[in-house]
Amino acid sequence: MCIFCKIINGEIPSKKVYEDDDVLAILDISQATLGHTLVLPKKHYANILEIPTDEYQKVMKKVKELAEKINKNLKPAGINILNNCGEAAGQTVMHYHVHILPRYTNNDLKIEFTDNSSNADLDAVLKKINN
Ligand code: 5GP
Ligand code: ZN
Predict the structure, then answer these.
(1) Which helix (H) or strand (E) holds 63?
(2) Is CATH 3.30.428.10 what the domain over 3-130 is classified as, yes or no?
(3) Mutate-to-test residue for ligand 1 from 93, 94, 97, 99, highest number of ligand atoms within 8 A of CB
(4) 30 lines ligand 1 (CB under 6 A)
Protein backbone atom coordinates (compact mmCIF):
# COMPACT_ATOMS: atom_id res chain seq x y z
CA MET A 1 0.00 0.00 0.00
CA CYS A 2 1.34 3.48 -0.86
CA ILE A 3 2.18 6.06 1.79
CA PHE A 4 -0.81 8.29 0.94
CA CYS A 5 -3.19 5.29 1.12
CA LYS A 6 -1.74 4.65 4.60
CA ILE A 7 -2.41 8.28 5.53
CA ILE A 8 -5.97 7.98 4.15
CA ASN A 9 -6.70 4.84 6.20
CA GLY A 10 -5.13 6.35 9.35
CA GLU A 11 -2.08 4.06 9.56
CA ILE A 12 0.19 7.11 9.24
CA PRO A 13 -0.75 10.38 10.99
CA SER A 14 -1.15 13.62 9.07
CA LYS A 15 -2.23 17.21 9.58
CA LYS A 16 -5.60 17.32 7.82
CA VAL A 17 -6.57 20.57 6.14
CA TYR A 18 -9.79 19.17 4.63
CA GLU A 19 -11.57 15.84 4.31
CA ASP A 20 -14.73 14.50 2.68
CA ASP A 21 -15.78 11.11 1.26
CA ASP A 22 -13.67 11.51 -1.89
CA VAL A 23 -10.89 14.00 -1.19
CA LEU A 24 -8.27 14.56 1.50
CA ALA A 25 -6.02 17.60 1.89
CA ILE A 26 -3.02 17.46 4.24
CA LEU A 27 -0.05 19.62 5.08
CA ASP A 28 2.99 18.41 3.14
CA ILE A 29 5.55 17.03 5.59
CA SER A 30 8.30 19.05 3.86
CA GLN A 31 6.53 22.48 4.01
CA ALA A 32 8.51 23.81 1.03
CA THR A 33 6.70 27.04 1.89
CA LEU A 34 4.50 27.75 4.90
CA GLY A 35 1.08 26.18 4.30
CA HIS A 36 2.30 23.81 1.55
CA THR A 37 -0.74 21.57 1.11
CA LEU A 38 -1.38 18.35 -0.81
CA VAL A 39 -4.82 17.57 -2.22
CA LEU A 40 -5.48 13.95 -3.14
CA PRO A 41 -8.30 11.59 -4.08
CA LYS A 42 -9.05 8.96 -1.42
CA LYS A 43 -9.00 6.28 -4.12
CA HIS A 44 -5.56 5.33 -5.38
CA TYR A 45 -4.69 6.48 -8.89
CA ALA A 46 -1.04 6.75 -9.87
CA ASN A 47 -1.22 10.06 -11.68
CA ILE A 48 -3.25 12.52 -13.78
CA LEU A 49 -3.24 10.08 -16.70
CA GLU A 50 -4.85 7.34 -14.60
CA ILE A 51 -7.45 9.25 -12.59
CA PRO A 52 -10.96 9.31 -14.15
CA THR A 53 -12.16 12.79 -15.14
CA ASP A 54 -14.99 12.92 -12.57
CA GLU A 55 -12.58 12.11 -9.71
CA TYR A 56 -10.09 14.60 -11.12
CA GLN A 57 -12.74 17.30 -11.14
CA LYS A 58 -13.60 16.63 -7.48
CA VAL A 59 -9.94 17.05 -6.53
CA MET A 60 -9.47 20.20 -8.60
CA LYS A 61 -12.65 21.79 -7.21
CA LYS A 62 -11.11 21.42 -3.74
CA VAL A 63 -7.76 22.71 -4.98
CA LYS A 64 -9.50 25.93 -6.00
CA GLU A 65 -11.49 26.23 -2.76
CA LEU A 66 -8.42 25.56 -0.62
CA ALA A 67 -6.27 27.95 -2.67
CA GLU A 68 -8.87 30.63 -1.96
CA LYS A 69 -8.92 29.76 1.77
CA ILE A 70 -5.12 29.71 2.01
CA ASN A 71 -4.96 32.99 0.13
CA LYS A 72 -7.47 34.57 2.50
CA ASN A 73 -5.97 33.31 5.74
CA LEU A 74 -2.20 33.05 5.12
CA LYS A 75 -2.11 36.08 2.84
CA PRO A 76 0.72 34.91 0.58
CA ALA A 77 2.03 37.17 -2.19
CA GLY A 78 1.26 34.42 -4.75
CA ILE A 79 0.43 30.71 -5.07
CA ASN A 80 1.81 27.91 -7.26
CA ILE A 81 -0.44 24.95 -8.08
CA LEU A 82 1.73 22.00 -9.08
CA ASN A 83 1.28 18.39 -10.14
CA ASN A 84 4.20 16.11 -10.94
CA CYS A 85 3.34 13.22 -13.26
CA GLY A 86 5.99 10.53 -13.46
CA GLU A 87 9.43 10.13 -11.97
CA ALA A 88 11.06 12.26 -14.68
CA ALA A 89 8.74 15.11 -13.72
CA GLY A 90 9.69 14.83 -10.04
CA GLN A 91 6.86 12.60 -8.79
CA THR A 92 8.01 10.67 -5.71
CA VAL A 93 4.69 9.42 -4.33
CA MET A 94 2.81 7.50 -7.01
CA HIS A 95 -0.66 8.45 -5.74
CA TYR A 96 -2.12 11.39 -7.66
CA HIS A 97 -1.88 14.65 -5.73
CA VAL A 98 -1.80 18.37 -6.33
CA HIS A 99 0.53 20.72 -4.45
CA ILE A 100 -0.73 24.10 -3.26
CA LEU A 101 2.35 26.21 -2.59
CA PRO A 102 1.77 29.62 -1.06
CA ARG A 103 4.53 32.05 -2.11
CA TYR A 104 5.70 34.83 0.17
CA THR A 105 8.63 36.12 -1.87
CA ASN A 106 9.90 35.75 -5.45
CA ASN A 107 12.69 33.47 -4.26
CA ASP A 108 11.19 31.19 -1.60
CA LEU A 109 10.73 28.34 -4.11
CA LYS A 110 12.66 27.50 -7.24
CA ILE A 111 10.54 26.55 -10.26
CA GLU A 112 12.60 27.37 -13.30
CA PHE A 113 11.60 27.50 -16.95
CA THR A 114 14.43 27.72 -19.45
CA ASP A 115 13.76 29.38 -22.81
CA ASN A 116 14.46 26.59 -25.32
CA SER A 117 12.38 28.11 -28.10
CA SER A 118 15.35 28.48 -30.42
CA ASN A 119 15.53 24.67 -30.64
CA ALA A 120 11.80 24.19 -31.12
CA ASP A 121 9.94 23.62 -34.40
CA LEU A 122 6.50 24.80 -33.26
CA ASP A 123 4.65 23.66 -36.38
CA ALA A 124 6.15 20.18 -36.09
CA VAL A 125 5.23 19.87 -32.44
CA LEU A 126 1.69 21.17 -33.08
CA LYS A 127 1.24 18.55 -35.78
CA LYS A 128 2.50 15.83 -33.46
CA ILE A 129 0.24 16.86 -30.58
CA ASN A 130 -2.86 17.00 -32.76
CA ASN A 131 -2.24 14.05 -35.06
P1 5GP B 1 5.75 14.58 -5.38
O2 5GP B 1 7.24 14.74 -5.42
O3 5GP B 1 5.36 13.13 -5.58
O4 5GP B 1 5.02 15.51 -6.28
O5 5GP B 1 5.33 15.01 -3.92
C6 5GP B 1 5.29 14.14 -2.84
C7 5GP B 1 5.19 14.99 -1.60
O8 5GP B 1 4.76 14.18 -0.54
C9 5GP B 1 6.54 15.62 -1.17
O10 5GP B 1 6.44 17.03 -1.20
C11 5GP B 1 6.74 15.07 0.23
O12 5GP B 1 7.27 16.03 1.13
C13 5GP B 1 5.34 14.63 0.65
N14 5GP B 1 5.33 13.51 1.58
C15 5GP B 1 6.04 12.36 1.48
N16 5GP B 1 5.76 11.55 2.53
C17 5GP B 1 4.84 12.22 3.29
C18 5GP B 1 4.17 11.90 4.51
O19 5GP B 1 4.34 10.84 5.11
N20 5GP B 1 3.31 12.83 5.00
C21 5GP B 1 3.07 14.02 4.36
N22 5GP B 1 2.21 14.86 4.93
N23 5GP B 1 3.70 14.36 3.21
C24 5GP B 1 4.58 13.47 2.69
ZN1 ZN C 1 -2.24 5.28 -2.72
Answers:
(1) helix 53-74
(2) yes
(3) 93
(4) yes
Q: Is 97 a catalytic residue?
A: yes
CA of 121 to the centre of ligand 2 (A): 39
CB-based burial label for 28 (10 Å; 0-12, 13-18, 19+): middle
Listed range (13-17, 20-24, 67-71, 113-117) with the worst mean pLDDT: 113-117
Report the pLDDT value the prediction gives residue 119, as an integer from 0 to 100.
87
Ligand nearest to the CA of 93: 1
Residue 68 class from Cβ within 10 Å (0-12 exposed, 13-18 middle, 19+ buried)?
exposed
- Does ligand 1 lie within 6 Å of residue 29's CB atom? yes
